[in-house]
Amino acid sequence: MADWKSSLFWYCLPLHSGVVEVGMDKILVLYSSRDGQTRKIVDAMLAETEGCEVVMQDLHSLPKCNLSKFKKVLIGASIRYGNFHPSLFSFIHAHHEQLEVANAAFFCVNLTARKPEKQTPQTNAYMKKFLRLSPWKPKTLGVFAGALQYSRYNWWQTRIIQLIMKITGGSTDTSKDLEFTDWEKVRGFARDFWSKR
Ligand SMILES: Cc1cc2nc3c(=O)[nH]c(=O)nc-3n(C[C@H](O)[C@H](O)[C@H](O)COP(=O)(O)O)c2cc1C
Asked: Which atom belonging to ligand 1 lies closest to the Cα atom of 180?
């Protein structure tokens, strides 16, 4: 096996066993994403890092991590039918003591945040819900508007999202996907967090 391939093999091995063990000065990024928008936001945030090693884990795979091994921990999760994916809280409950002392941030992604008056941690209903339910109260919080991706929804999801859009004054035109994410805000959040000591 070529050198880089064998390093990659040993690097990834602990991930397959469900336990992440890596050296210091690494960044851990955990995300919960159904249609890929949160993952896309994570990628944009990571593009703002320089010279960092990144370990990325999908929360839906129920990872177990030793957070003390990481310089920074970033967690991002989207909303579906008013809720976060249960794996978010499973992870937080299993790791909240480590999260309290880690240099860790949390952001959430939803369509409610497309409205200017609902896109701060203080005004977004889902961030408020997160803070109510989570034993970990992150010092760094972000709220980002997601995407309306009719092309990806099944029949039921399309009808439900259309209904919600009708009630909240959004688009019901299923022929067009719309992205509401403010990429400058995403990059600004990332730059602040990565540079924070
Ligand atoms: C079935 C479904 C239910 C959703 N429910 C909500 C909701 O209750 N509130 C909200 O603000 N956004 C809701 N959204 C919008 C998503 O949060 C938004 O599309 C986000 O970009 C999804 O991110 P993801 O692709 O990373 O999962 C819903 C989207 C879908 C497809």
From this structure: 21
Backbone φ and ψ of 21, nearest 5°? -135, 105
Residue from 31, 32, 79, 148 whose mutation best tests the ligand 1 pocket (most atoms within 8 A of CB): 79
Q: Say whether both 63 and 137 belong to one domain.
A: yes
Same domain, yes or no, for 138 and 71? yes
Mark whether 46 and 99 lie in a shared domain: yes
For residue 30, being part of any structural domain is answered with: yes
Q: Which residue is listed with tokens 């970990």?
A: 136
Going by pLDDT thresholds of 50, 70 and 90, the confidence category of residue 5 is very low
Q: In this structure, what CATH number is given to the domain that contains residue 184?
A: 3.40.50.360
Atom of ligand 1 nearest to the CA of 110: 17
State pLDDT tens for residues 46-84: 999 988 899 999 999 999 999 999 999 999 999 999 999
Ligand 1: distance of its center to the CA of 20 in Å? 29
Tell me whether residue 12 is in a domain. Answer: no
CB atoms under 10 Å from CB of 143, counted, come to 23
Domain that holds residue 155: 147-178
H or E stretch at 147: strand 147-148
Cβ of 35 less than 6 Å from ligand 1:
yes
Whole-prediction pTM value?
Answer: 0.89
> Which residues are CB-contacts of 39 (< 8 A; sequence separation ≥ 6)?
31, 33
Same domain (yes/no): 47, 131: yes
